[in-house]
Amino acid sequence: MPSQPLSITKVVSAGALLLLVVHGLGRFVYTPLMPRLVADGQLLLSQAADIASWNYLGYLLGALLAIRWATPSGIRRVTPWALALHCLTLLCLTQTDSLLWISTLRLGNGISNGIVFVLVPALVLEWLAGEGRIRASGLIYLGVGLGLLLSSALVSLSDELLAGAARWWPAALLSIPLGWWSWLTLSRISISPSLTAPKGIPAGRQSLFDRHSQPLFYAYAGAGLGYILPMTFLPMLASLQLGASSPMVSQSWLIVALAALPSTWLWNRLGSQFGDRNVLIVNYVLQLFGVLAAILLPAQWGIMLCSLLVGGSFLGAVLLTQRLARSLQPTQGPRLSAALIALYGGTQLIGPWLVRQGFDYGISLQASLWFGAAALLASFICMLKVADLRH
């Protein structure tokens, strides 16, 4: 037990920084790095898509593994090891040009990301519920927006100084102190007993999948596929359509980051005021328009609008869905969070794989975004079937 109670601001900040580390400096730093690694000759475009798939597979495996550790003792035991794996994989990426090793290391990095992304928000959410401040839970995802901005800055500022494998150094070195401080803070949490509630619930407990929650799960699955295509390939698309020297190669990811940063606060507030279900419907419409813009508009404007709309919406979909699901299934706690993240991760895995298959059949990267648009349209339709809990 800590000698002094932790403040809500400090707990949320520590959780946000851990998401910054594993998501911003782990997963999404690869998006602005991809066109540079291809231009350096380290990877072919098809290989870059395959590596993205390995990372998303790791994310799915990590989320599934995290289900067994979703207890106070499990979280304390496993999270430091997951953070260590994250740092180790990034450090090793600075030392290799082998496609096999890069793929293996990105798989391991994805596993660490999935574990942390399940356990840390679940821990903070349950603690905030015990403090009567559950509406503040969405603010933890500010770390992802900050991570996007930081990853964009690190890659852009080191562009002329580093090449090939060495481009991973900034993310690797910064992860160590940020991850260390953040976990030291969260390890002092006095966890609400509600986190262990699933063990005490009778065998006939409410199922995760029932007629109330199924449309929400289906919508979230579509959202995973819908957002991951532009979030993985936007700078690469800009490089292919506008040229590798176009400012939009870097600016597209910077726009994503700048749009994502305030979006967590905005969607959190809108959901609290108008209802998470209603605001989530609007969220999916905006994401759909963003993907369609990249497909249908001239490249310069389409990529810019896609960066703005998808970057400003995807985190809102995550926090609104997590909170809405908990209101539909109030007894499920971390088990519910793990299931949602595993589902989201599973459909994200499909995205780069579809792009890779499309290359084999002559489908361009831009045309591959139609898969994402169709998935987001399906998400919108499914959300219309979710009950409005305010009535």
Describe the structure.
By secondary structure, the chain is mostly helical. It has a single domain (8-196, 208-383), classed as Growth Hormone, Chain: A (Up-down Bundle). The protein has helices at residues 8-27, 30-39, 45-66, 72-93, 99-130, 142-157, 169-186, 197-200, 214-242, 248-274, 276-296, 299-311, 314-328, 334-360, 365-383. It is globular and about 50 Å long. The termini are far apart. The relative contact order is 0.15.
Summarize the SSE layout with pairings.
Elements: H1 8-27, H2 30-39, H3 45-66, H4 72-93, H5 99-130, H6 142-157, H7 169-186, H8 197-200, H9 214-242, H10 248-274, H11 276-296, H12 299-311, H13 314-328, H14 334-360, H15 365-383
Helix pairs in contact: 1-5, 1-6, 1-7, 2-9, 3-5, 3-14, 4-5, 4-7, 5-14, 6-10, 9-10, 9-11, 9-12, 9-13, 9-14, 9-15, 10-11, 10-12, 10-13, 11-12, 11-13, 11-15, 14-15
Keywords: Membrane, Transmembrane, Transmembrane helix
GO cellular component, one term: plasma membrane
Protein name: YbfB/YjiJ family MFS transporter
What would the keywords be for this entry?
mainly alpha, Growth Hormone, Chain: A
Quick rundown:
The protein has 15 helices and no strands. The chain is mostly helical.
